[in-house]
Amino acid sequence: MKKITLINPPWFFAHPRDIIIPNNLGIGYIASYLESKSHKVTIIQSVAEATKNIRKIKGRYQSYYQVGLDYAQIINKIPEDSDLIGISAPFTNHSRIVKELAVVIKSRFANTPIILGGAYPSLILKDALCKEIDFYVVGEGEKALRDLVQGKDIKEIKGLFAYNIIPENIKQAEIFDNLDELPFPKRDKLNITSIS
Predict the structure, then answer these.
(1) Which of 76, 94, 105, 177 sees the fewest Cβ atoms within 10 Å?
(2) Is residue 174 part of a domain?
(3) What angle do CA 43, 20, 24 make, to 5 degrees?
(4) pLDDT band at residue 21 using 50, 70 and 90 as cut-offs
(5) What pLDDT is attached to residue 129?
């Protein structure tokens, strides 16, 4: 059994009135699938757990707002015995957040692999590269993470890439032909009702 921590990081919003609680079903599905394979999963839902934690950021052309747990709060929620830490990047504008977060995580969990998944690495993998992030998933993450935590050779895992081994021909991760094989998402772990 492996212990995996999955993080839905803080999000950027144009204005505090635009704040929504993200229902990251991708993380929920990954958690339920990994738990069906006898692994233990912890989910950290940064926005849902701290909607009132708002930081104004001055951008090049306009200001915007980072909402959710700050990086120190996230670090303190990661179980010390995590075998793998996953970060979700459902949008390309998460670039700055996931890279900053990865640096902070590595400073505390130097020997724990970090994996990045979601639309951002799936769409522009080379832009998502960051030396603190060990692995990247292109496409659906369930089977790729399962294979990684079960010790399969990285070169044999479709859609999974190591920071220093990015091929020219990037293939998507393996998907489910039969969606009935995929357990329902772990909504109880998504924390979408705990608004503070």
Answers:
(1) 177
(2) yes
(3) 30
(4) confident
(5) 93
With bands split at pLDDT 50, 70 and 90, how would you rate the model's confidence at 196? very low
Quick one: tokens of 110? 């130097």
C-alpha 162/C-alpha 170 separation (Å) is 12
Domain with 160 in it: what CATH number?
3.40.50.2300
Instruction: Indicate the SS3 state at residue 159.
Output: coil
Asked whether the beta carbons of 78 and 101 are under 8 A apart, the reply is: no
Does residue 111 have a pLDDT over 50? yes
Q: Which two tokens stand for residue 69?
A: 């747990």
Residue 1 in 3-state DSSP? coil
Phi, psi values for residue 67, rounded to 5°: -120, 135
- Distance from the first to the final alpha carbon of the chain: 33
Tell me what percent of the residues of the chain surpass a pLDDT of 90.
Answer: 58
Residue 75 resides in a domain: yes
What single letter denotes the amino acid at residue 131? K
Cα separation, 117 vs 89, whole angstroms: 6
Residue pair 49/105 in contact (Cβ under 8 Å)? The answer is no
Section 6-20 average pLDDT: 89
Task: Compute CA distances 114 → 100, 149, 170, whole Å.
Answer: 13, 12, 20
Judged on CB neighbours under 10 Å (0-12, 13-18, 19+), 116 is: buried
Q: Is residue 194 part of a domain?
A: no
Question: In this structure, is residue 147 part of a structural domain?
Answer: yes
* Residue-number span of the structural domain to which 141 is assigned: 3-178
